[in-house]
Design goal:
Blueprint: E1 9-13, H1 24-31, E2 35-38, E3 55-58, H2 70-82, E4 87-91, H3 101-111, E5 115-118, H4 123-131, E6 144-148, H5 162-166, E7 171-175, H6 181-190, E8 198-203, E9 211-216, H7 220-227, E10 233-237, H8 244-247, E11 259-262, H9 270-278, E12 282-285, E13 289-292, H10 298-305, E14 312-315, H11 318-330, E15 342-345, H12 348-355, H13 370-381, E16 385-391, H14 397-403, E17 407-418, H15 424-432, E18 437-440, H16 443-452, H17 455-463, E19 467-470, H18 473-481, E20 486-489, H19 495-507
Parallel strand pairs: 1-4, 1-5, 2-3, 2-4, 6-7, 11-12, 11-18, 14-15, 14-16, 16-17, 18-19, 19-20
Antiparallel strand pairs: 7-10, 8-9, 8-10, 13-17
C-alpha cells in the first residue's frame, strides 16, 4: 500500500519505444506500484520493473473504443488511488505531450488525489536522434514546433494555424500525422511551404523495427505510401532533415533489424535481450524452461547443516549460486558458515553471481565447461570432500570425474521445468521464417525447444534457413543430435560470447 504522505498516482513517461530510454525516476515509481495502467504501445518489458504482485491493466482492455476510453481511464486511476493503492499511469513518450496527461492530471486534482508527473523522452526527440536528424542546428534551424497531425487541417475552428506553420522558420515535427499526409502536405504547400523542403517520416522510432523515409516535402506522401509506412510514426519537416544522409547511425548497428529468438528462462533473459537491443536487433522471447525451487529441500538442508565438513563448494551456474545462498539465509545462517570452504565457479557469470554476495571464487577454469572445471579442480580436491550445487538435470561429467579422486556429494538446489505452453505467435513466426536467428544457451533448452516446435520450424532449423547460434561445444552437440544445423558457436561460453557469435554471423556474406 502507498505511503499516505506520498503521491498516490504517478503519471509516468515510458519513452519512445526503446526500453533503455526509461528514466531512473520511472523505474523507482514502477518498483512501488500496486497498479500499473499502461498504453498499448508501451514495451511489455517495462512492466518487469513493477512488483510481481502489481495489477497490470492495458487501456485497450477498458470499455469503449479509443476516443471514448479516457473517462474510464481517469475513473480507474481515481478509484484505485482512493483505496490507498500506489498507481502508475505508464504512457508512451512524455505524459504531457500529446498524451492526455494534462486531462488526467486535471481529473486527479478535481478528485483531490495527490499525483506526480514523471517526464519521459518524447517521440520527437527519440525519432530525430535515431534517424540522425538534429532538430536544431546552428546553420539550419533555431526553433522547433511540435504539432499534432490528428486534426483535419481544413476543418473549421482548427486549433492549428497551418498558414503560420507553413512559414515557421525552423523544424516542424508532426505527431500522429502519418495517415493524413495526403491532406497535411498539400495544406502546407498551399500556404507557401517550399515543395523541395527536406522531410522525413520515421516509424517505430528507437527500436530495431525503425524505418525511415526521406524525400522533398511534395514527394513525401507518395514515398511513405510506397514504403508501406504507418503508425506509430513521426514526421520531421525542415532543412535539418537533409542531415540524415551524413549523420544517420542507427541502422548501421551490426544486428539492426534482425529478429533473434531468445530461449532462456524469462527471469534470466534480460541481459541477452538488452545486449541485442543495443546492437539494433529485435529480440523475441520464447522461454523454453522455467527455473524453480527443488521439489524437496531436504538433501540441500542436510548439506547446509554439514557445510563445515566440506573443503570445496562447487557451482556450475549462476542459478545454483542464488538458490543455494537464498536457502542458506532462509535457514537463519549467513556467509560466516562458508569461512572454511573454498569456492569454485564454472565460468564468469557464475563467478559474478558469487560476487553479488561478496564472495570471491577461489577457482574459475580458463574454459567454461565441466571437463575443464574437473581438470582445474583435480589437484586441489584429491582426498577431500566436495559439494556440488547444481540443477536437478544436466550432464554428470563433473561428478563422475571428481568421484574418482574425492568424496563428492551432489545436491539439486533448483529445478528446471519445461514450459508447458509456448507463445503461439512466436512459434508461428518461427514456422513462417520470420525469425533470423535462434540462440540456444544449454542442451536442456535445445531439447525443450524441440518439443514445442512444429515440423516446418524443425525443417527450417535443419536446413539452416533459420540460423542457430550455440553457446558452447556441448550445446552444439545437443543441437546436432536434434538434426539442426549450427550456424555459429560462441568462442567464449557466455552471454557476451553468444552476442559476439551473432555479430560475426551477421557480417558473413550470404
Amino acid at each position: 500500500m502507498a505511503d499516505s504522505s506520498q503521491p498516490l498516482v504517478y503519471l509516468v513517461g515510458a519513452g519512445p519505444g526503446d526500453p533503455g530510454l526509461l528514466t531512473l525516476r520511472a523505474v523507482e515509481c514502477l518498483a512501488q506500484a500496486d497498479v500499473v495502467v499502461y498504453d498499448k504501445l508501451v514495451p511489455s518489458r517495462l512492466l518487469q520493473h513493477a512488483p510481481p504482485t502489481a495489477r497490470r491493466v492495458c487501456v485497450t482492455d477498458l470499455p469503449g473504443h479509443h476516443p471514448h476510453q479516457w473517462p474510464h481511464i481517469q475513473r480507474l486511476l481515481i478509484d484505485e488511488a482512493r483505496q490507498g493503492k500506489c498507481v502508475v499511469r505508464l504512457k508512451g513518450g512524455d505524459p504531457f505531450l500529446f498524451g492526455r496527461g494534462g486531462e488526467e492530471a486535471e481529473a486527479l486534482r478535481q478528485a483531490g488525489i495527490p499525483y506526480e508527473v514523471v517526464p519521459g523522452v518524447t517521440a520527437a526527440l527519440g525519432a530525430a536522434a535515431c534517424a540522425g536528424i538534429p532538430l536544431t542546428h546552428r546553420d539550419r534551424a533555431s526553433a522547433v514546433a511540435l504539432v499534432t497531425g490528428h486534426e483535419d487541417p481544413s476543418k473549421p475552428g482548427s486549433l492549428l494555424d497551418w498558414s503560420l506553420l507553413a512559414r515557421f522558420p525552423g523544424t516542424l515535427v508532426i505527431y500522429m500525422g502519418i495517415g493524413r499526409l495526403g491532406v497535411i502536405v498539400p495544406e502546407l504547400l498551399r500556404h507557401g511551404c517550399a515543395a523541395e523542403t527536406p522531410a522525413a517520416a520515421i516509424q517505430w522510432a528507437t527500436t530495431g523495427e525503425q524505418r525511415t523515409v526521406t524525400a522533398p516535402l511534395a514527394e513525401l506522401p507518395g514515398a511513405v505510401q510506397a514504403a508501406g509506412l504507418g503508425p506509430p510514426a513521426i514526421v520531421i519537416i525542415g532543412p535539418v532533415a537533409q542531415l540524415r544522409e551524413q549523420l544517420g547511425w542507427f541502422e548501421q548497428r551490426p544486428l539492426w533489424g534482425k529478429r533473434i529468438l531468445v530461449t532462456r528462462p524469462r527471469a534470466q533473459a534480460h541481459e541477452l535481450i538488452r545486449r541485442l537491443e543495443i546492437l539494433g536487433a529485435i529480440p523475441v522471447l520464447l522461454p523454453t524452461v522455467e527455473v524453480r525451487e527443488p521439489a524437496d529441500w531436504a538433501p540441500v538442508d542436510r548439506a547446509l547443516t554439514a557445510l563445515s565438513s566440506y573443503q570445496w563448494l562447487v557451482f556450475t551456474s549462476a542459478n545454483g549460486v542464488h538458490f543455494f545462498l537464498r536457502r542458506l539465509r532462509q535457514r537463519g545462517a549467513d556467509l560466516r558458515v562458508l569461512g572454511g570452504v573454498r569456492l569454485a565457479a564454472i565460468g564468469p557469470a557464475t563467478a559474478d553471481a558469487l560476487r553479488q554476495y561478496h564472495l570471491e571464487p577461489d577457482l574459475v577454469p580458463s574454459e567454461y565447461r565441466s571437463e575443464r572445471l574437473a581438470e582445474a579442480l583435480a589437484p586441489h580436491v584429491a582426498g577431500r570432500r566436495v559439494l556440488l550445487a547444481r540443477a536437478d538435470r544436466g550432464r554428470e561429467v563433473l561428478r563422475q570425474e571428481l568421484s574418482a579422486i574425492a568424496e563428492v556429494e551432489q545436491v539439486a538446489v533448483y529445478s528446471q521445468v519445461d514450459v508447458v505452453a509456448a507463445e503461439p505467435q512466436v512459434l508461428d513466426a518461427l514456422s513462417r521464417g520470420a525469425i533470423d536467428y535462434v540462440t540456444v544457451t544449454s542442451s536442456n533448452i535445445a531439447r525443450a525447444l524441440d518439443r514445442v516446435l512444429d515440423e516446418p520450424s524443425r525443417e527450417r532449423l535443419r536446413s539452416g534457413q533459420v540460423a542457430v547460434v550455440s553457446i558452447s561445444p556441448v550445446t552444439s552437440a545437443a543441437v546436432r543430435e536434434l538434426g539442426w544445423r549450427v550456424a555459429a558457436e560462441a568462442s567464449e561460453y557466455t552471454t557476451a560470447g553468444v552476442v559476439a557469435a551473432l555479430v560475426r554471423l551477421a557480417k558473413t556474406p550470404d
